[in-house]
Amino acid sequence: MSEDTMDATAGLIARLDAAETEASVVRLRHRRYELLELSPGASVVDVGCGTGRATAELRQRGAAAIGVDPDELMIATARRRWPGAEFRMGSAESLPLPGQAVSGYRADKVLHVLPDPAAALAEAHRVLTPGGRIVLVGQDWDALMIDSSHPDLTRAILRSQADSLPNPQVARAYRNLLLDAGFQDVTVEAHTGIFTESGFLPMVEAFAAKAVTAGSVTAEQGATWVREQRSRASRGRLFVALPMFVASARRP
Known about the structure:
Elements: H1 3-20, H2 23-36, E1 43-47, H3 53-60, E2 64-69, H4 72-81, E3 86-89, E4 102-108, H5 117-127, E5 128-139, E6 145-146, H6 151-163, H7 174-180, E7 184-195, H8 201-214, H9 219-234, E8 240-250
Parallel strand pairs: 1-2, 1-4, 2-3, 4-5
Antiparallel strand pairs: 5-8, 6-8, 7-8
Helix pairs in contact: 6-8, 8-9
């Protein structure tokens, strides 16, 4: 793993840590566990498990949970933080599981970074037992909102963030993707996360840095925008709204 890749993953871990304990995030995470409808001892794969919190929480709820992630640093961090849980290297498109191995499948904020989400759902269909449940969670990156006194600059920065992703709008396609993959009883819930704590400032700053690197805004414009967001955070005026879609379905 290159030094740049490790730095990027370390930055992502820091942003995940800032978000994972926020009250609305915790409530939504537990709602996703409910939608899996797991019986005690049921097996479930947590795809894109990151640092492993959800995998560990699912085990605490009595599930036989396996966390899977393609990032070595993420898996190493998860194993260090949650030594009693099981974690494996693997991708959403090629899971380290035999066919019909699990009765639950969870993918949280994963499909938007994949070039072919349909391939991941075909793989989900393969590893789930008949009657098994799938739960997908993701944000619509073209609907992200941040309060700012520079609306045009904010629009450019957030558009650059969306454009940096392979599939920024995939969450709004969850229902049709699941139906196309052969799943049944598909339901979709919409939740909007409202983030006002200063702990979310690193995420906001990362958006600006990415836009500067992409050439979507100048370094001076990026610095101006970040200064304003830091000022808002210091005065308790940070405001980020992120629409989240939670889709669940059953494998026939």
